[in-house]
Amino acid sequence: MSSKTIKAKTAFILQHIETENDYLHNIYIFKKQSNMPSTEKMQSSYTQTRQN
Hints:
Elements: H1 3-33, H2 39-51
């Protein structure tokens, strides 16, 4: 594997981890906002985060 490939893979993985953290953060916020978080709400928030 060339160093370019390794760098690209590392960047992709880091980006993926950031996205996962955003998703978990959104779920956390929803749980704080309401005691009964709806999966649908979380899903739409996640989609919006991905689009921004």
